Amino acid sequence: MHRKAVKIDEESIKLISLFNNLTGAVVKDCIVVPGKMGVRDKVIFLVLKEDVGKAIGRNGENVKVLKEKLQKTIDIIGFSEDIKEFIQNILNTSKVRNVEIRENISGKKTIIITVNPEDKGKAIGKNGIMIKKTKLLVLRHFDVDNCIINTKN
């Protein structure tokens, strides 16, 4: 699966610098997701998968410091070049059974992620937040046009 070149804006560069200074973890990407109606903005940091523990810190200390300093919700996700592993890292509490890539006649690629039916609620998330986050990250980092979560057997 081909990867896309990711453009990082000025705000994200500043956040990456702050994150690196605090944690020492290698950041692959940083995305600020605006909150809606009383919900805090969220900052998603993609780090090398081997740096996730260092990024989070002992007892979540780094996440707590960042959350307080930035007044934003913080997500830390381990990046992987392997799309299935990457998706599993995003949907960490849901078991990903299968990742299928389908290409239609016009060349558009769709990723179909199958999770266990009992993980449906966690995979979708409140108001579809997990689906939106998965789609945002997969479309940003991999050469695909759509991303669907399937919870049927």
Automatic annotation (TrEMBL):
<keyword id="KW-0805">Transcription regulation</keyword>
<dbReference type="InterPro" id="IPR010212">
    <property type="entry name" value="NusA_arc"/>
</dbReference>
<dbReference type="InterPro" id="IPR004044">
    <property type="entry name" value="KH_dom_type_2"/>
</dbReference>
<feature type="domain" description="KH type-2">
    <location>
        <begin position="17"/>
        <end position="75"/>
    </location>
</feature>
<dbReference type="InterPro" id="IPR030842">
    <property type="entry name" value="TF_NusA_bacterial"/>
</dbReference>
<dbReference type="InterPro" id="IPR009019">
    <property type="entry name" value="KH_sf_prok-type"/>
</dbReference>
<dbReference type="GO" id="GO:0006353">
    <property type="term" value="P:DNA-templated transcription termination"/>
</dbReference>
<dbReference type="Pfam" id="PF07650">
    <property type="entry name" value="KH_2"/>
</dbReference>
<feature type="domain" description="NusA-like second KH">
    <location>
        <begin position="83"/>
        <end position="145"/>
    </location>
</feature>
<dbReference type="InterPro" id="IPR015946">
    <property type="entry name" value="KH_dom-like_a/b"/>
</dbReference>
<dbReference type="Pfam" id="PF26594">
    <property type="entry name" value="KH_NusA_2nd"/>
</dbReference>
<dbReference type="GO" id="GO:0003723">
    <property type="term" value="F:RNA binding"/>
</dbReference>
<dbReference type="GO" id="GO:0005829">
    <property type="term" value="C:cytosol"/>
</dbReference>
<dbReference type="InterPro" id="IPR058582">
    <property type="entry name" value="KH_NusA_2nd"/>
</dbReference>
<protein>
    <submittedName>
        <fullName>Uncharacterized protein</fullName>
    </submittedName>
</protein>
<keyword id="KW-0963">Cytoplasm</keyword>
<keyword id="KW-0804">Transcription</keyword>
<dbReference type="GO" id="GO:0031564">
    <property type="term" value="P:transcription antitermination"/>
</dbReference>
<keyword id="KW-0694">RNA-binding</keyword>
<keyword id="KW-0806">Transcription termination</keyword>
